[in-house]
Amino acid sequence: MTTKSNAVSFRLDSDLKPVIKQWFDHHPGFSMSRLANLAIRNYVTNDQILEAVETVHASKKAVKTSLKKMMKKHKKTLDELK
Q1: How far is residue 2's CA from residue 59's CA, in Å, rounded to a whole number?
Q2: Do residues 36 and 20 make contact, with C-beta atoms less than 8 angstroms apart?
Q3: Residue ranges of the alpha helices (H) in 1-82?
């Protein structure tokens, strides 16, 4: 009998890492896999309430400035994607 692997890979947000480390310090019997399974199960089995957010339209000048700043800041990454 063969079994399929259900391995999933994901990256934690940097601000979440210390919170998870602290949680593991208080709950040493848990693994990352167990925590992820519990969190995902809770998320998908309970209703999620989405709240509307107010959108703000930027001026063309503000958009152009932001794009120039982004292109300059992330030039190396964008070049690697070519």
Answers
A1: 58
A2: no
A3: 17-26, 32-45, 60-73, 75-81
CB 44 within 8 A of CB 37: no
Q: Let me know if 27 is exposed, middle or buried by CB neighbors in 10 A (0-12, 13-18, 19+).
A: exposed
Tokens read off for 1: 């009998």
Collect all residues with Cβ–Cβ distance below 8 Å to 81 and sequence separation of at least 6: none
Residues 6+ apart with CB under 8 A from 16: none
pTM, two decimals, is 0.50
- pLDDT, averaged across the chain: 89
